[in-house]
């Protein structure tokens, strides 16, 4: 029996983990325990621990360390507090697991992994080797990779980049594709009528799905960027329904939150959702005409739904993107102009992140290499 830990700090990583968790649940050679922290435990961000529990998973430990502020000091303090809390957790539990999964690039995830290093916890990192030059997450992602023993990447390009980063040609790096795309093949999406009943949002209307996070490298420019986004969305709401999902608790995140709330008060056709959950988020993506924002879901999942994406600014700069992604600056005129054109089109190309059955591939590799963790 392989004893596995799962670190999950947000709705985003949990949604990606989901097919892997389901595969582990069905595998008699695997036992796993879920460690929950970050925005999962924040009522401001939708308290998404409830979603994990409603999916039928038991939570091994809840670790609260997230501060409410979004200033650089608050983020740095949140990182430090998370590392402190996890230093206590690892001291008690570092022998509990053969391997612990960490996903992505959040600062909370990086802090939890950094605290594990002195205890020599074996970390398996998902989605390493990627680049997002407009976000400090780029640094956190690489720090997680440098602290990890096993690496499951989503393309060969990221595998090659990770070999360079680790400076180790013998590193255990495996290209398995994106787990989140397996979600799309297995999850039951809602019908438009079911969605409307749940969220009071009519997807029969022409809908634009919007997810904008702060640029955490050039965080002093976020007020300017936010004004351009809001101006564009206000103009687009004349002809479209605009559904906005709220940003992560990054530096300057409240700038967007407050502005979107004001926008909703002015425009009936602008809807705001704190947390859709995996099923509803992908349902909204499926029935939308277009995506606008700077989120990884636009880069990775949207092509599978044959959607065009207007990717704003530098947050995702450097990340491999399909031909469905149009890169634009935070400029309201350009956003509106391109949105009107590409909302009328359907993408016909392929998704560069797709590979079949990544969860089974991961479990197979884990079993084959289990001797390395003994």
From TrEMBL:
Gene3D superfamilies per UniProt: Glycogen Phosphorylase B (3.40.50.2000)
A Gene Ontology molecular function term of the record: hydrolase activity, hydrolyzing O-glycosyl compounds
Any GO BP: UDP-N-acetylglucosamine metabolic process
Residues in UDP-N-acetylglucosamine 2-epimerase domain copies: 22-367
Highest taxon of the lineage: Bacteria
UniProt cross-references to InterPro entries, sorted A to Z: UDP-GlcNAc_Epase, UDP_GlcNAc_Epimerase_2_dom, WecB-like
Pfam families: Epimerase_2 (PF02350)
SUPFAM superfamilies (alphabetical): UDP-Glycosyltransferase/glycogen phosphorylase
Alphabetical list of PANTHER family matching this protein: UDP-N-ACETYLGLUCOSAMINE 2-EPIMERASE
Protein name: GDP/UDP-N,N'-diacetylbacillosamine 2-epimerase (Hydrolysing)
Species the sequence originates in: Algoriphagus faecimaris
